[in-house]
Design goal:
Helix content is 40%, strand content 31%. By secondary structure, the chain is an alpha+beta fold. The termini are far apart.
Length: 357
C-alpha cells in the first residue's frame, strides 16, 4: 500500500469514527425541549385544542363558613367545571378564531359555548345563551371591541404588533430560562409507551417531562432570580425592538435592576423559607410531546397542598394543549353579518343588557 492510499484509508477511518460518534450522541432532554419550544415559536399557522380541569379543590370548612355562602358556591363551581378550547391561529395577518366550551356539572349543570375572533385591532365575542340569565335580543349577537379605542378610554399604551419581534423575544426568553435550570434535576426523557393520558390519534417522535418538586423548587426560583432574570433584563435593555414590544421605558429597566440587588435576593430567599412552610409541591410538571422538532402536545399538572388560616387545603389542576395542521393554510370562518355585530361603546346603551345585570 503506497503513502497516498494509507492517507486515504486513515481519513476514511477518521470520518467513520466521527459519524458513529455523532450518531451515538443523543441530545439531552433539556436541549430537546428547548429546541422544540424555540422552533414552535416560528410557526406561521396552526390549529389548536386544549382543556382546563380542576381535578380536586378542598378548602377548610372554617374558612368557607367565615367567608359566607358565596365561598361555598364558588368552590362548587370550580370543582365541577371544565373548559375546552379549540380554534386556529395565523401570524400574518394576525387572526385567531377560538371557541371556549364551558361545562358545569352538578345541581346547576349547564353548558356555554363562547366563540371569539381576535385580530390585531379588534376582538369579536359572541354573547352566549345563559339559562339563568336571559339576555333578550343580545344573546347570539357579537360584541365588537376596538382594542385601540379601548386603550384610549382606559388610558393604556398598547405596543404595536410585530410578530417577528415577538416571536424572537419569546425564543430568547425560553432559551435564557431553560439554560439556567439544572438539566439532571428538572428534565427527563419519557418513553412514549410509558407516557399516560396521550390522545390515541396523537403521533409523536419523543416526549420530555419537566418537573419541579418540593426538593428542587427553591433552587429553581433562586436560579431564575440570580441568573435568568438579570440576563433577560440586560438583553431587553440592549434591544430597542424588545423594549417597544414590552412597552417598556429605560426607567422601567432601571427599576427592574434595582429589584435584583444582593439585598433583594436575600429577601427572596427568606420569602422562600416562609413559602415552604405554607406550600408543599406534590407535583408540578409539564409533559411535552415533540413531532418533527415542534412541540405539538403539552400536559401541565399541578398538585399542591397549602395552608389556609393554618388549616390544610389542596388543589389538583390539569391543563392540556395540542397543536395540529402546522404551517398549513387556515380556513377562515364566514364573515359575520353586520346586523349581528354590536360595537362595545353601544353595549351599555341597550336597556336589556343594563337591566340584566
Amino acid at each position: 500500500m503506497n503513502r497516498n492510499s494509507s492517507w486515504k484509508w486513515l481519513l476514511m477511518m477518521v470520518a467513520l469514527l466521527v459519524l458513529v460518534a455523532g450518531c451515538g450522541k443523543q441530545a439531552s432532554p433539556q436541549s430537546t425541549i428547548q429546541s422544540a419550544l424555540v422552533k414552535s415559536m416560528e410557526l406561521q399557522s396552526y390549529t389548536f385544542s386544549g382543556s382546563v380541569n380542576v381535578e380536586k379543590l378542598t378548602l377548610p370548612n372554617a374558612f368557607l363558613q367565615s367567608e359566607g355562602p358565596e365561598a361555598q358556591l364558588a368552590l362548587n363551581l370550580l370543582q365541577n367545571m371544565t373548559i375546552d378550547v379549540k380554534g386556529s391561529h395565523q401570524i400574518e395577518p394576525m387572526r385567531m378564531e377560538l371557541t371556549a366550551d364551558i361545562a358545569l356539572k352538578g345541581d346547576f349543570s349547564f353548558n356555554l359555548s363562547i366563540p371569539m375572533i381576535i385580530t390585531e385591532d379588534t376582538m369579536l365575542v359572541k354573547v352566549p345563551n345563559i339559562p339563568m340569565l336571559p339576555l333578550g335580543d343580545l344573546a347570539g349577537k357579537y360584541i365588537e371591541i376596538d382594542m385601540n379605542e379601548l386603550a384610549k378610554e382606559e388610558n393604556l399604551d398598547i405596543p404595536s404588533y410585530n410578530p417577528e419581534t415577538q416571536q424572537k423575544l419569546v425564543q430568547d426568553m425560553i432559551s435564557i430560562i431553560l439554560k439556567h435550570l439544572d438539566g439532571e434535576q428538572y428534565f427527563q426523557s419519557v418513553k412514549l409507551d410509558e407516557a399516560t393520558g396521550l390522545p390515541s390519534d396523537l403521533k409523536l417522535d419523543e416526549a420530555v417531562k419537566v418537573s419541579v418538586t418540593q426538593t428542587n423548587f427553591e433552587a429553581a426560583v433562586i436560579a431564575l432570580a440570580e441568573k435568568a432574570a438579570p440576563e433577560f433584563i440586560e438583553l431587553v435593555a440592549q434591544n430597542e425592538e424588545y423594549m417597544k414590544a414590552l412597552n417598556l421605558k429605560k426607567q422601567d429597566i432601571e427599576d427592574a435592576k434595582k429589584e435584583l440587588t444582593p439585598e433583594k435576593l436575600q429577601e427572596v430567599k427568606k420569602d422562600l423559607e416562609d413559602i415552604k412552610k405554607e406550600l408543599t409541591i406534590n407535583e408540578l410538571s409539564m409533559l411535552g410531546g415533540i413531532q418533527d422538532g415542534y412541540m405539538t402536545y403539552q400536559h401541565f399538572k399541578a398538585d399542591l397542598s397549602f395552608k389556609v388560616d393554618n388549616e390544610d387545603a389542596n388543589l389538583v389542576l390539569n391543563m392540556t394543549s395540542r397543536y395540529d395542521n402546522l404551517n398549513k393554510p387556515i380556513e377562515k370562518q364566514a364573515d359575520i353579518p353586520k346586523d349581528q355585530i354590536i360595537p362595545y361603546e353601544n353595549l351599555m346603551e341597550m336597556g336589556d343588557f343594563g337591566t340584566s345585570f
